[in-house]
Amino acid sequence: MVSNRIKKIINSIIADALYILQEMYKNKECKHNALSSVSCQIFPEYSTARNRKYMTRESEQEMRFAFVQALLKYEKERKEDEPKLYFSIETPTEDKYSFSNIASSGKSGNFDLVIHDMNLHRICLIEFKNNYPDVKTFQKDFQKLANPKENKTKNKETCEKEDSLRYFIHTVISYDNDKVSIRLKKSNDIIHTKYGSKAIPVNYFLFSLCRDKENENDSIVDELSKIINGLNHIDMCSIPLKLK
To answer: What is the value of pTM for the model shown?
Structure first.
């Protein structure tokens, strides 16, 4: 597995990205798409001609670009002894997939974002999701992330092949325990069916943008722990958040 140092750096980048997204969302709520002091990114608006005046669209794209902004910040501020990281968007998978019941050899999919090291080895595979798409959409992403054939990288010290990190980063407007539970359990089932004990654990992280419920993200940790404790292919990713 990729070193704990790399994992710590990526976790820090995720925390920075969530801070950016939270500030964007906070300012959007305070004033009609108010500009944030931490990002040039704003939430796109629906057309007023569709009777959706001042309504904005939230999707996984905002988190993806916030992540890229945080990654570029890391690169700008990184110390000389810290690793240089590269990234690619909509990166083709190495394996082929068939998500239908029709017999097929499958075709290549994409990862939302992949982080590469100096040798351009894929050291981290990331999928982003916002709110609650249908269960099959979750299963497809988890199936790709847990695939042991995806993106073996080489440890330059031992020259041995090792597995890249796998992250599923999930942002929601408000937490719904039942919706999260069914999606994670069904995704864990498909991973077990496809790969069994060879599956690579997926780091799952969920963050709620809701500001109506005080300390909601603290309570989410307890609820998620109860769900994920019963799953053998999905790990709960705990990241100290840099939120005000």
So the answer is: 0.87
